[in-house]
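Two proteins follow. First one:
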Amino acid sequence: MRWRPFTWLRRRSRAEAKAPVGVVAWLALSVPGAVDPCARFAVRAGVTTMGALSSSTIVLTQAGVSKRQADLRVDADGAEVVDLGSTGGTSVNGARVTRRRLRDGDVIAFGVVRLRFEVIPGRHPALHRRRP
């Protein structure tokens, strides 16, 4: 059977969808053979660092992830992912990027790691805007 990312995600009830105060989005992790295939990381306004370093906000130790892979920046204008000069690079929806604005449902990839950006409705108005 071919591995298909995010097929394990199910619709969450309203109670499950409630997020802590200050959380504006989730990053849903999808890695083939992961111990916890349902891992979600909270995204708050400001900078969220991703990489293999233990000092990263989101620590990803899988193959293909650099020590300092990328930043996810959420500000008044919305959210963007910025590659930090990683060896393997950063992709959004299959296209390699150095910097890219995100919208709900975008998939960020580093090697075998896939993170789907899921906006929490009503938490950050700029994240609901469509790209021109």
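Second one, unrelated to the first:
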Amino acid sequence: MRGTRTRVSTGTRVMAAVVTGLVLVGCGGCAESAQPEKAANASDPKGDGRSGGSLAELTVPAGYDAGRGWDQELGWVEEGAETAPVAVAPGSGTVAYVVADQAEMYVQVRKATTGKVLWTSAAWTPPGSLDDSAGYDPALTAPASVTAVSAGGREYFVAWAHGLAGRDELHDGKEIVQAQVYAADASGNSVAPLRSVDVPVAAANGTAQGEAVVRDGGAGQALVGWAEGYRGHDAAIDVTSGKVTTYEGEAAGSVVGMSEQGPVANASGGGFGVSQASSGASGGWSSADVAPEGAAPEQSVGFGTDLLNGTAQTVADGKVVASWTPSGAGNADGSEETVRTVHDASTGKVLLRAECRDRTLTQTFDNDDTVLGDSVLTSVSPGGRYLSYGWMLFDLQKGSVVCLAKGVGGDEGRKDMLIASVRDDGTAYGTVPGSDPRVAVEIPASTGTPKALPTGTETPAYTPVGAGIFLTWIEGGGIRVSGRVES
């Protein structure tokens, strides 16, 4: 579950030629029982599209076997696009991605360890593109993506696109985010969505994708966020019922994630929590009631303005990661060891308290040589013991944190690092932001000591049990989704 895994992409015309990119390359070296199912015709976007070619050459960390796995090309994704239309359901160990055949999209799901295709959705035509720079074209559809959501012990994949519904030569159309909800444990071909939900938005900013994104909000909700000018908006889709709840007023644009009691939001006057108005008279909690030791009562936001201390950063797997301005003076270099806490999202109970300074913003920005770039991501190990947010790796069982901000631990020359994923054994993978060539790192939670990996090493974007899922750019356009089994 990754609160910030999905990023916003640019628009693209889906071409018939991408069908040839639906390639499952043989699971070289896998046991016979783990071989993918027999391929369908490669011209069929709903089939395996297996090729007799070899696996893509990837340099992977020692925890994975570069010669055993599978590859899937998504040729329709534009080079440099900020969306990876890929999601992983950790409980079932399945991988979903969006494939394309002209203006139609399909969600296809594979077993992460074997690459076996488990199901493919019926064709879906997303709403029309917001990009009208070339004039109205009914074949131009909005790019689609997918996220994974868990509810009541069951996992779901939510495919979504942000575009214009009902647009034609005589009508402007209505701007929406359209979500298609599928059961992750479906099977067969032409799988219909359990439900299709349209959320009205007003986020177009002259780009093909606008400023809207759908992600796993937690508590069985797909969280839709969009910006209308400088004003943020949030809506939650209940994946089990299709009910849409739009948050206005105090919560508008400030919802970080969902709990069983309601939305976890940052308040305009500072602090965070679940308001009683959204949870009912018997629920709700405020950060003011769970402030950790060492946190100042207030935080300065500049211009002589002080707000209640405490900021929720992310919500994942029923946990809230929060930051607090510390009381007292900072370090000699001007940095502060910011107080970090992890809370139970439903009750606010503090599960972990630690200190970790903020990362610096002085390094070169992302040069787009990796699909996920230098995003600050949230990741949870499949078993739930380890939680990472950006440059912090929390061990919820031990109650400790590995801090990867610049100069931590007295090593003033050490650079910032950002974590992309974490395994059940506590091994995290990430990169040094802005590094060129890209520097990949491996961080064991047991020691907290990062190790630079050989130049050219790819790090897994997802770490379901038994496999790593790698996302790489394809020369000439598109991305490659690669599963490599653990060694």
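SUMMARY FIELD: Helices lie at 276-279. Confidence is low (pLDDT under 50) at residues 1-52, 362-367.
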